[in-house]
Amino acid sequence: MEMNQNQNGAEDPTKVSTLYCIDLSNPDIHQSVSLLKQACLDCGFFYVVNHGVSQEFMDEVFAQSKNFFHLPLNEKMKVLRNEKHRGYTPVLDELLDPDNQLHGDYKEGYYIGVEVPEDDPEAEKPFYGPNVWPADGVLPGWRQTMEKFHHEALEVAKAVARVIALALDLEVDFFDKPEMLGKPIATLRLLHYEGQISDPSKGIFGAGAHSDYGLITLLVTDDVMGLQICKDKDAKPQVWEYVAPIKGAFIVNLGDMLERWSNCLFKSTLHRVLGNGQERYSVSPN
Hints:
Layout: E1 21-23, H1 29-42, E2 45-49, H2 55-69, H3 73-76, E3 87-89, E4 108-112, H4 142-167, H5 178-182, E5 188-193, E6 207-210, E7 216-221, E8 227-230, E9 241-242, E10 250-254, H6 256-261, E11 270-273, E12 280-285
Parallel strand pairs: 1-2
Antiparallel strand pairs: 2-10, 3-4, 4-5, 5-12, 6-11, 7-10, 7-12, 8-9, 8-11
Helix pairs in contact: 1-4, 2-4
């Protein structure tokens, strides 16, 4: 849909993208595969609904995320992100689009990965190892909530990957194999945008333009608009469209890895986040 006027009645070029919606409870798998394939050919972004994660639990995850980000900075810095990419990332710490950004991203985050004990041989691998957790006395039950959501979101990702496999004319369990998603590098990112107003002309972004590097990313946001996609990264000028949040739905996008594996048939699309002065929260398993 296109929004043609702003509050002052002047023309407003802001555009909201129309994305396909995949219902994971749909008994007609052929219809789901057809819709998903078209979404992957079009822009690599789509919604997933009826995925099995309850709205009540999603609300709890967002409440717990806010509890962490509302802590004093000195408390958050106690769990600063380590060499395994686990823990807290402060505002401006990440820079996703250095060619166009004046500063880093105006967001703060928290990274959680697959939990592997420090004495486990697997912990020697990149992106594997123990997580960094806030003290239980500071945020009671926080770790348990995030570990449960990490597990449930990974199951959704696997269900989506099975539909993707069929869309690529592969066996339905292709991505379930041990060498594929049997032991995935699955990272849960909690993100908080504090309310900075973005200005692309000045290089100020909530999150700079980038494509994801992995297989797929799942995203749940609050009701504050901010995510934008550019379906044609080579267009000049680039055209950016907002992706509207849908309560209870995951927004799914493909990563560079899947674009390469599909011989560039499926799209890994540029996306960014613009702040409009409102606080914004999102949770992103990938």
